[in-house]
Amino acid sequence: MKPIRAARRRNFFSVLMLLAAAHAPAQAQAMPSDAPGAHDHPLVARWPGSWLVGQDVSPKDEAAIPAGAKEGDTVKVEGRITRLYYLSPPDRNPFDVQRGYEAALEQSGFERLDACAGTCGERPLDYWYHPIQTVSQDKFEGWSAETLLQMWRQPGDERYWYGTLTRNGATTHVSVLSAPAGIQDLRNRYVTTVVQIVEP
Fold this sequence. Notes:
Layout lengths: L2 H20 L28 E16 L7 E14 L6 H14 L3 E7 L16 E2 L3 E2 L2 E2 H6 L8 E9 L2 E11 L10 E9 L1
Antiparallel strand pairs: 1-2, 1-4, 2-9, 3-7, 5-6, 7-8, 8-9
Helix pairs in contact: 1-2
C-alpha cells in the first residue's frame, strides 16, 4: 500500500471510529464472518463492527453512476470496479452510518458531486444490484447472506453520496448508499450500505 493511500485510510478509519463510538450501544453484538476472501478497499474503511456480507470486483468494466435527481443524470466511467455490501451493527440508523462515510471521505480529500436523502428523485439506485461474486456463508438471525442481499434495502428511505478524488491526473469515483435493511424483522435495527469504488 502506498504511503499516501495508507495515510488516507488511517484518517478515514479514525473519523469513522469517532462517529461510531458516539452512537455505540452499551454492548456490541458479534457479527458473522465476512464473505470468504473479501476485504475492505484500501481507500474506504467500513463502519466499525459492520459485517461484509458480499463483495464484487471487476478488473475492467464500466458503470453509470447516479449524479442528479433527473432520469439520465449519470456519469459514465470505466475502470476497476469494487462493490462492498455491509450490514451495520445493531441499533444504528441510516443517517449516522451514511454521514460517517461521507465525513470520512470528504476529510480524505474527496469532492462531493451528488447526494440525496429520502427523496432521491429518479436516480437509478438499483444499478449496482446484480449477482454478487463473493458472499458470506454465515446466517444472521436465521437469514442467509444470499437472502439478505436479495432483499437488501428498504426503498424510499435511502441516503446516497457520490464523490471523486483526483491525483496525478487520475480520478477515483466513490459512491455510497445506506438504507434500512430490506427484511422487515431487521429493518428497524440494522442499516445496509453499499460502497462502490471505480479506479482508473
